[in-house]
Amino acid sequence: MSSIHTIFFNEKILFLEGKNLIITGNNGAGKTRFLNHLTDNLKGNSNTDNKPLRDKIISEINFGIMNFHSALEFKKSENEHLKYILNSEMHTQVEYIFSKEIAEFKKQLKKKFDNFNKNKDNYFKNNSNKIKSSENGKLVIKISKELEKKNEKYFYYYAPEHIENYVKNLNSMIDSYIANKKIVEVALHSWDKNSIYFFDSSRVSRKDISIDQFKTYDEFLKSGSLTDIEGALEAYLLFQKLELLSLIKHRKASGTKIKQINEIEKWFIKVENDLKWILENNTTELIFTKNGNRVLIKQSRTTFSLDDLSSGFKAIFNIYANLLMRAQIQKIAPEHLKGIAIIDEIDVHLHITLQKKVLPFLIQAFPNIQFIVSTHSPFVITSQNTNTVVFDLTTNELIEEDLSRYSYESVIKGLFHVEIQSEKLESEIKAIAEILNNEPNSYEKLRNVLRNITPFVKQIDVESKSFYFRALNHLLDNQELGDLDV
What average pLDDT does this structure show over 332-338? Predict the structure, then answer.
C-alpha cells in the first residue's frame, strides 16, 4: 500500500504512519508550495539530485578519518559514530537526516581545526629554538624520528595545507548539499508514482464544466487522458448501463454472466449511495435519457444533469470522479483503490455545509487512499477524528489531538489566532470597563451599553463575560437595573 510514514520539513519530523494530513496556516504560509514540493518528491520530479554530492562527502570524510582525524584529535568513539552514519542507509538516503548529521559534523570539525591551529601556534612558540628557515623560506622543525613516528600531527604542523584543504573542501561541499536539499522529504511504506493523485486549487476554474457526451468510453481510454474526467465518468456510466442491459437481455443460467451483472449493479449502487450522502438526499438515483446518451441525477421529482451541479459540488465531483475512474481503469472496486491523494484548497468553492462533509465523504468513498489536503477552513479541520492529523505551517506545529471535539470558534481562535468577536463587541466591552473604572455612577450609560451586548452574550469570550456580569452586579447592587431585560 502506497502511504506516507514520515514527512521531513523545516527541521520538523511529521510521523503520519499512514494517517490523513490536513495542512493549514495563515495566508502566505506556503500551503500550496508545501504540497507542490511534496508531489514533486513523490513523483520523482524534483530538480535537485544530491546523491553524487552526498557520495563525495562520504568519500571525503572516510579519507579524513584515515589520514587527518588523528592529527585533529578525534576520539575513537567520534570516528566510530561517523562511520556508523556514513554506512547507515537511513542516515545517508534521507536528506533531512543526512543534512542534520553533516551540519553537526561541520561544527565539530571547526572546533577540532581551531584547536589544531591553536596547538600548532603554541608548539612553534614553545619550540622556537628548534625551528629554522630553509633556503626556500619554509619552516623546518628539528624533531626526532621517534617523536615524529609517535605523533603524526607534528608532520601536519609542518605541512598544515593538507588539513586546511580537507576542511575547506568539506565545508564547501556540506554548504552546497544543505543549500540544495529537498524542502519536503518523505519516508514511504511503499512507493508507486502512478498511485500519486494531485488536485490543484484550479481544478474547477469555471462555473460551467462542459461534459462531452459524444465521446464513448472506449474513446476516452484510447486518448489516455483524464483531463475531462467528468466526461469520462459519464461515458463509463452509459457504457456500464448498456452492458448491464445487454447481459440481462441475453441472460442465461451462467455463473460468469451473473457475476458480471452483480459487479455492475454493485458499482451503480456504490455511486448512488455516495451521491446520496454528499447531496444529503436519500432519494438520489442515477437515471438515463431515453436516447441513452446522457446521465441524469434524480431526486424525488427533480431531475438534473452533471452540468447542473453547483460549483461546490463540481469541485468535489472532480476529485470523486477522478479517483473513481482510476479505480475502474485498474479494474478494481473504488474501496480497494490505493495511493496518496494530494488536494490543494480542498474547501475551494464549497459552502460551509460542504466544507464539513468533503473530507469525510472522500475518506468514506476511498478508504484505502491517504489524503493530504490544505485548507484554511475550521469546518474541514473539525470534520475529522483521530485518523487525521493537522500541521500548522505558521507555527510549525503538528497537532495529533482529535480536533473534532472542538468548536469552530475554538479552532479559529486557537489555530488561526483570529479573534472571533467583532470589533463592535470589543469596543462595547472596553466601554464597560471604562465606565466601571472611571464613571461608576453613570448607570444609564452602563445600561445602554449592556442593552447592546445582551443579545450576543453567548458569543463573547470568558474574559468579556466577566466584565458583562460585573457590570450587571454593579447595577443590581445599586438597584439601578431599570428596564434592562437580562
Answer: 90
C-alpha distances in Å from residue 283, one per residue of 64, 241, 266, 272: 74, 20, 18, 10
Residue 74: helix, strand or coil by DSSP? Answer: coil
Q: Please name the residues in contact with 413: beta carbons below 8 A apart, sequence gap of 6 or more.
A: 419, 420, 461
Contact in structure between 169 and 61 (CB atoms under 8 Å): no
Helix (H) or strand (E) holding 324: helix 311-329
Name the nearest CA neighbour of 227 among 214, 209, 240.
209
The answer to whether position 59 is within a domain reads yes
The predicted-structure confidence for 416-447, as pLDDT tens digits, reads as follows 655 555 566 778 888 888 888 888 888 889 88
CA distance 110 to 171: 9
Residue pair 456/426 in contact (Cβ under 8 Å)? The answer is no
Instruction: Say if strands 3-9 and 184-190 run parallel, antiparallel, or are unpaired.
Output: antiparallel
pTM of the model: 0.69
Of 70, 74, 71, nearest in space to 158 by CA: 71
What is the Cβ-side half-sphere exposure of residue 311, based on CA atoms within 13 angstroms?
Answer: 13
What's the whole-number mean pLDDT along residues 320-343?
Answer: 89
Would you say residue 186 lies in a domain?
A: no
Residue 382: which domain range? 193-414
pLDDT by residue (tens digit) across 54-76? 899 999 999 999 999 999 999 99
Three-state secondary structure call for residue 137? coil
> Which three cell numbers mark 130?
628548534
| Same-domain pairing of 288 and 230 | yes
Question: In the Cβ-directed half-sphere of 133, how many Cα atoms lie within 13 Å?
Answer: 3
